[in-house]
Amino acid sequence: MRITTLFLIICFCMNSFAQNFSFGKVSKQELEEKFNPLDSFANAAYLHKYRRTYFQYDQEKGFVVVTEIFERIKIYTQEGFDYTTKKVSLYKSNRDQEEFSNLKAYTYNLIEGKIINEKLGKDGIFESELNKYLNQVKFTMPNIKVGSIIEYKYRVESPFIANIDDFVFQHDIPIHSLEASFEAPEYYNFKLLTKGFLSVIPKVEVRHGKITIMEKERSDGFSGPVKTTFSSSNLDFKKNVTSYSLTNVSALKEEPYVNNINNYCSAISYELSYVKYPQSPIKYYSTTWEDVVKTIFQSPSFDIELGKTGYFEEDIDALINSTSDPIMRASLIYNHVKHRVKWNGYYGKYTDGGVRKAYKDQVGNDAEINLMLTAMLRYAGLNANPVLVSTRHNGIPLFPTLDGYNYVVSAIETSNGVILLDATSKYSTPNILPIRTLNWEGRIVRDDKSSSTISLYPKEKSKNIVTIIANLKQNGNLEGAIRIAKTNYSAMTYREQYLETDKSQYLEKLENEYGGMEIDEFEVKNEMDLSNPVMESFKFTLEGQVDVIADKLYFSPLFFLKTKENPFKLEKREFPVDFGYSSSSRYMISVDLPEGYRVEVIPESVILALPDNLGAFKYNISVIGSKIQLVIDAEMNQAIISPIYYEALKEYFSKMIEKEAEQIVLTKV
């Protein structure tokens, strides 16, 4: 048995080492593979990933950054077809833009024992402009089948020497083989920043490079015909090379309640620290958070825009002259900006067209809206400052980098604490920022150029209070009325879902969510009164809520509200559990029992608690005459739970779900 196992391992290793990763050299063995040996559930896998990023000297442009990509992917299932479309983002700014070229791509299939390849044609390549900062090239591979292998290679040339895309070493599918390298001339000093749980150790070496500079000289023509002579000179320099070689990298799979899975994938970032050309002074970029803040603050699209006031003074004077109360002034200005200027969906820490144009056109990016808000608050006498934020999709800014922040909100510093404001969302309220901004900490930037970190999470819990008064019928139907009150983030999320959708579609979705419930007399209060909880109420009828066996009735007193499954299924978790914000829920349920029945079995009341006061679940049930009364209080006191508590959290949810599913047994009198 051991000899056979050892033989199979040796054969697998020999087969792996024998793979040819030259472009176009796809093997029959690769095409015959039915499942991935690293992960039998994988829909696809990278057989090989290659990336080389280096600096190339151009006589006209100077140094440009070139990235060469070669990837080979095996498709195991139809779900793996998602990996047969590749999207390449190309940055642009003013007249500069990245250029995509040298695309070659093939699909390989094994048909009757023969390898058949099909070349990607022009009809499978699509170029588009995503926005004023991004173009995109997208290509979709032809003739895809389960078992296909695709491979492609291309080149991107970029004039943005400080903008190096991350080297990503982990994806949501396995990687068999990965090779990558980054080469930079000695004139550019880059910081190497790592993230993720996978150990990646680069090989570092110094190589020699050479630049050939062509020169031409034209005679003055006084001593004869005008002549042009050409000459060339060489400049030798050193280049720093870091290279990576990995094999058998497991997939990084999405899990419930993860802020941004890319925060935890293994990757290397190269951040330009400084530039030092021969006989020139050093030009620093970002080495500390102070440097980052200074660079951002000194940008005309930040500091100067923040100082402009003439375009709004008349409007704000008319708005606030009737009150001297600072909080009332702040509220009036906040609501004025929210209703006056609409967010265009663009993220950025700098303004685009400027605050004056955004105010006039009544549309702008987040920086224009919230820098404008900050300026107005200052004009009204409040101690207001901008706050730099990294949104959830941008990742957590662990290191001081210029790309670490991509968004701006506003803060008012008072003797009672800081009030955070974001006027891009019409449903946001003070200290209740849009969920996209809830990402650890922001950095408040003051007029004197000083900065400090500030938590973006609210101290007050978001509440969800559900009251149900219902009658249970002998046939198992449930009739009654429900009222739901929501505050803070629960309210903001509800308003976004309800007010931004068709009302009939919303009701249909609600009825389906509750198992075919019939809803009548539906009403929503305070839908736009953001200072009060949003209130939803309706009457309902729901069939089949009871199991009838002989002369007994079995049902859960939570009925359609009980949690169906535990979201935490992994044995071990390396990432924090991110609930977004702290919350509390209260369920108060009163049910009239059907006539002629009495309670035979009732669940016990119980209290479940997470360690270190992270959360608690209180289940209190009683029988009063012919009524069953259930009160449940569930609290999650922390927005983010460390992975060291994962086992306790998983067990907590398991016991909670088990408790919610416990049944009451009624028997005929």
TrEMBL record:
InterPro entries cross-referenced by the UniProt entry: Transglutaminase-like
Keyword Phosphoprotein: no
Highest taxon in the source lineage: Bacteria
Keywords of this entry: Signal
Position of the signal peptide: 1-18
Transglutaminase-like domain: residues covered: 320-393
Pfam families: Transglut_core
Protein name as annotated: DUF3857 domain-containing protein
